[in-house]
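INTERNAL AUDIT FORM
Audit reference: QA-55
Scope: verify that the stored structure record matches its stored sequence.
Auditor: D.O.
Record contents follow.
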Amino acid sequence: MLVLALDTATPASTAALVEVTADGLRGVAERRTVDPRAHGERLAPEIAASLAEAGVRPADLTAIVAGLGPGPFTGLRVGLATAASMAQALGIPTYGVCSLDGLGRAAGPGRVLVATDARRREVYYATYVDGVRATGPQVAKPTEVEGEYDRVCGEGGLKYGDVFGVPMEEHLLYPPGAALVALAAERIREASPSEPLTPLYLRRPDAVELTRRKHVLN
């Protein structure tokens, strides 16, 4: 079963193809661009490049797995809208997973803090024990992050490493596509019904509706 994984919850946009078998999975292709202002422009070419590298067509896909965040409103909705529209066009299911969980799973054994940049001098974070989430996800200032951990991963950990004061997994800054698919593997194997892709924003978007009209001459 060939699965497409998409994630735009961080400054990176990621598209990956993963083969899910009865007893495991295998990464086939992955493309990633780190540019927080270009998710909308980069994601479609990344999908096309991943398909081309694998020598397959969209019709060969069995399911789509999408990172639900937490993440900024604008970037996150690009990945979720793309996943939903592709799945509808192809008639295949979508499955959502927490983007932080992808990093936590990839980090492996031990107590790990996953922190991504939430802007406003804050991080989205969760803690993991042997790849399984123990607390979170939450949003807070780095100095307010709670939980026990012996190392950190995610670009928020790199940015605020002096605050966290534990070793940094510098090779794990963004959610790997294979880890996202691994989190949904059982649902894929069981051909579970398609799930609505509900984003984890954790806070309101920066743009707010005006509460009253302003006079032009004021």
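Auditor finding: record pair retrieved intact. The beta strands are 2-7, 12-20, 25-34, 61-67, 94-97, 111-119, 122-129, 132-140, 151-153.
Action required: none
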